[in-house]
Specification:
- The complex is a heterodimer of chains A (501) and B (152).
- By secondary structure, chain A is an alpha/beta fold.
- Helices cover 41% and strands 15% of the residues of chain A.
- Chain A contains 22 helices and 16 strands.
- Chain A is globular, with a radius of gyration of 23 Å.
- The relative contact order of chain B is 0.12.
- Chain B starts with a helix and ends with a helix.
- In chain B, a hairpin with a 2-residue loop joins strand 3 (132-134) and strand 4.
- In chain B, helix 3 (43-51) packs across helix 4.
- Chain B has helices at 4-17, 25-36, 43-51, 55-64, 84-87, 91-102, 146-149; strands at 76-81, 115-120, 132-134, 137-139.
- In chain B, strands 2-1-3-4 form a four-stranded mixed sheet, covered by helices on one side.
- Classes of the chains: A alpha/beta (501), B alpha+beta (152).
- At the A-B interface, helix 1, strand 8, strand 12, strand 16 and helix 16 of A face helix 2, helix 4 and helix 5 of B.
């Protein structure tokens, strides 16, 4: 009997480890030989822990599985109360275009054989036969843009580093995925770590870099463990070595280190303070040397681009948003999880059709797209197609493609206040608009909460100053959630003095 | 009390083990904290000397990051996510009840040294909030019954 039980953080947080022990004990008691494989998550969080039993027809899913459901796995599987049928046939799976996440949840994350059997290293092998310029051209032609949030064309960044002079260059993977509603990086690293390693190795070839670092946040202990194991296995197999080697570095709980220059300072062992640009990290990055800093998903999308060709990837998407995007549907949502598809679905389709509306059953009030620095979208903007320019056109951003769904019990003034409070807590302190502005922002919103509407122009002006004057996106984008809440939900800010008192 | 010469020797070992790394300070601080539960004050001059940094620079790094402790935490640590996705699932109310049950606020430790309560901004469990981490163990869809897990 071959059974898959995810090692993914979500499955573990919902009891997967206890299930493994119970399943093994039940099998021993019955004298049945079981092979338990810890896979990544399929991304259907509402079904986790999702256990899969291998049958002649394919992998049968059972979930969300509890300890009481374990003995039933040894009986008539079709009659099991948690039986879902073939996992590949579930609507959530069939509706997706899984390019970057093709192997996540499918393979044993730490088996190189499994990885190879599912197309692994085809892209790297192809890259090895190409010149640096050819690899850069392939990535540029794919239209891939930075999936961390900024959306800068990955190929252009690589070209700059590739052509920069320097005897030591670096590939740095930004795995400091601190935005609420985002977990694509975590799922990829836990479910298909060799994909990230392959992407970084290809980047190394393209740029002439022989050393890579993954800066991985400490809040992701499972990902840290899996990535460290994967790097060791890849090194033993000769995938990594003197030609290109890498290290996993663990962050220390500072949100701002997701900003690339702050990350580089942290990686160098300094306070994670933002650096002014220029100089660009591409020219003077880690240790002052030419450095590619790319998000996990950007790098993990490269192997499939190299495997299937730039045109295949570019054929998906809309406008200047090419390829696929792993949507992370979260918050108060009925069907939450990771859904990879081409750019272009409308926000309403994502929230209502894929996400199934709220978990509470109450109406959706707002959706924050792009993490704590993203704007809140009301249902009246649900016709916005999911794309970089399309969201920018509505005074928002897609960021790392995380969506926090909130129901009608949500107080948008409280959410705006939280955005400013979060910025105040996490500001690195280097620039004044962010360091001081966020504190004044909390105070100003507190005035509004007391019914002092004269504070509205002050808040608007303050947000403008932060937006234009901050050194990085933390101070510069905190106005997005604040101003969108104020613009779209004015009633939440119009508190009468009497009520407040 | 820790034997100070044993501590000095152990920290020297950690420093030696990290020799040759580029930018070794964060890995060193993580290793020291894994050993002692915090970064002892006495370690700072030792680290500074080994890395040719000033004591102020080392202190500056320790104080910048939320993870590094200058004093030991309680015997158990509960980290509750305060970020937006968890908020939409009632994280604030859960935090309020846990604070009341423990009689402490954020960043505080119960007087008996049993539990420290800390906020965390995102554990990547955003579709099964509210999320928590109890002594390093991840918990999804948590509530105030977490408190029972750290009773002794």
């Amino acid at each position: 009997m071959k059974i898959y039980i995810p090692l993914d953080s979500v499955a573990v947080a919902l009891g997967a480890d206890a299930l493994v022990a119970a399943l093994q004990a039940e099998a021993d008691r019955r004298g049945v030989a079981v092979q338990i494989i810890r896979n990544g998550s399929r991304g259907m969080v509402w079904l986790e822990p999702l256990v899969e039993v291998v049958s002649d027809a394919g992998r049968l899913g059972f979930g969300p599985l509890t300890l009481a459901d374990v003995p039933g796995l040894f009986g008539d599987l079709g009659a099991h109360p948690k039986a879902l049928g073939l996992v590949e046939d579930l609507p959530w799976m069939k509706g997706q275009t899984r390019l970057t996440f093709a192997r996540v949840g499918v393979i044993d994350p730490l088996s190189l054989d499994d990885y190879r059997a599912h197309g692994g290293f085809v892209g790297l092998d192809r890259a090895k036969a190409m010149s640096k310029a050819q690899i850069v051209a392939e990535v540029t032609d794919s239209g891939l843009r930075g999936r961390g949030g900024a959306g800068f064309p990955t190929g252009i960044k690589w070209k700059t580093v590739s052509e920069a002079a320097g005897d030591q260059k670096y590939i740095v993977c930004n795995a400091d995925e601190g935005d609420s509603a985002t977990f694509a990086d975590r799922m990829l690293m836990e479910g298909d770590p060799f994909c990230l390693i392959e992407g970084m190795a290809i980047a190394g070839l393209a740029c002439g870099a022989t050393k890579g670092y993954v800066y991985l946040r400490s809040e992701y202990p499972v990902a840290v463990r899996v990535m460290n194991d994967a790097v060791r296995i890849a090194r033993e197999a000769g995938v990594l070595g003197p030609h290109f080697d890498m290290e996993i570095r663990v962050g220390a709980g500072a949100y701002v280190c997701g900003e690339e220059t702050s990350l580089l300072n942290s990686l160098e062992g300094k306070r994670g303070v933002v650096r002014a640009k220029p100089p660009l990290p591409a020219l003077q990055g880690f240790m002052g040397r030419p450095t590619v800093v790319n998000n996990v998903i950007s790098l993990a999308s490269v192997p499939v681009i190299m495997e299937k060709g730039a045109a295949h990837y570019k054929d998906f998407g809309l406008g200047r948003s090419r390829g696929t995007i792993p949507l992370q549907i979260a918050g108060n949502v009925r069907f939450g999880g990771l859904y990879e598809c081409a750019f272009g679905l409308t926000l309403g389709e994502i929230v209502n059709q894929i996400g199934g509306g709220t978990a509470s059953g109450r109406p959706v009030k707002a959706v924050q797209v792009g993490g704590p620095l993203g704007a809140w979208f009301p249902p009246s903007l649900f016709d916005t197609p999911f794309g970089y320019e399309e969201f920018a056109g509505k005074d928002g951003l897609i960021g790392h493609a995380g969506l926090t769904i909130a129901d009608d019990s949500t107080d948008m003034l409280a959410m705006a206040r939280f955005a400013m409070e979060f910025c105040a807590i996490e500001s690195c302190g280097k620039c004044t608009p962010c360091r001081v502005g966020a504190v004044r922002g909390v105070e100003t919103i507190d005035r509004l909460a007391r019914g002092d509407t004269s504070a509205i122009p002050i808040l608007t002006d303050l947000c403008n100053t932060m937006k234009l004057g901050s050194l990085c996106a933390l101070g510069g984008f905190t106005p997005y959630p604040v101003m969108s809440a104020l613009t779209h939900f004015p009633d939440d800010f119009a508190r009468s003095k009497e009520a407040a008192e | 009390m820790l034997d100070s010469s044993a501590q000095t020797d152990r920290i020297a070992e950690i420093l030696t083990a990290h020799r040759g790394l580029e930018g070794p300070l964060l890995p060193i601080l993580h290793a020291i904290q894994a050993e002692y539960g915090h970064v002892p004050q006495a370690a700072i001059p030792q680290i500074a000397a080994a890395l040719s940094l000033s004591k102020a620079e080392v202190h500056g790094v320790i104080s910048f990051y939320h993870d590094f402790r200058e004093a030991p935490a309680g015997r158990h640590v509960i980290k509750l996510c305060r970020a937006e996705s968890c908020q939409t699932m009632g994280a604030d109310a859960v935090a309020g009840r846990i604070k009341a049950a423990l009689g402490i606020d954020w960043h505080e430790t119960t007087p008996d040294g049993r539990v420290t309560l800390e906020p965390v901004f995102c554990l990547g469990l955003c579709a099964c909030g509210p999320a928590a981490m109890v002594d390093g163990r991840l918990v999804g869809r948590c509530d105030e019954t977490l408190v029972a897990e750290v009773s002794e």
